[in-house]
Amino acid sequence: MTNxxxxxxxxxxxxxxxxxxxxxxxxxxxxxxSKITELEMEVSEHSLVMGAxxxxxxxxxxYRMIGGVLxxxxxxxxxxxxxxxxxxxxxxxxxxxxxxxxKKKEIIDFEAKYKIKxxxxxxxxxxxxxxxxxxxxxxxxxxxxxxx
Length: 148
Hints:
Belongs to the prefoldin subunit beta family. Keywords: Chaperone, Coiled coil. This is Prefoldin subunit 2. By secondary structure, the protein is mainly alpha-helical. 53% of the residues lie in helices and 11% in strands. It has one domain: Helix Hairpins, CATH 1.10.287.370. The strands form two sheets. It has a two-stranded antiparallel ribbon. The chain has a two-stranded antiparallel sheet with strand order 3-4. A hairpin with a 5-residue loop joins strand 3 and strand 4. Helix 1 runs antiparallel to helix 2. The longest helix is centred in the middle third of the chain and has 40 residues, at 75-114.
């Protein structure tokens, strides 16, 4: 790796700068994963609500939280709003997934350019691009230990 800065000033100056940029890129990737997971959970909650209120009488009253205020509405008014919110969340998830793919490609290109390899704790060296997509996630094994 060279320690020279190109004329355009966009190349990192040293190994520490490369490591900092790489760490920042990995952090951005993890933030995207977290946000996608959070929004997918919200979509799931919207689906549960829709499934629970669809079979009910449309004129039946229900309550909805809007901006921290609980308001009384009818199912007929709430159901379309919940559906629109769910569709909006799905669109945001789609765009975040596109951004995630772009970020992954950017990281892979950066790793190839600077010959970055991830060193495992047991001394094994492996290209980060060869990792499975969900390997940064934890795995729960066995029972959770108790009911909530």
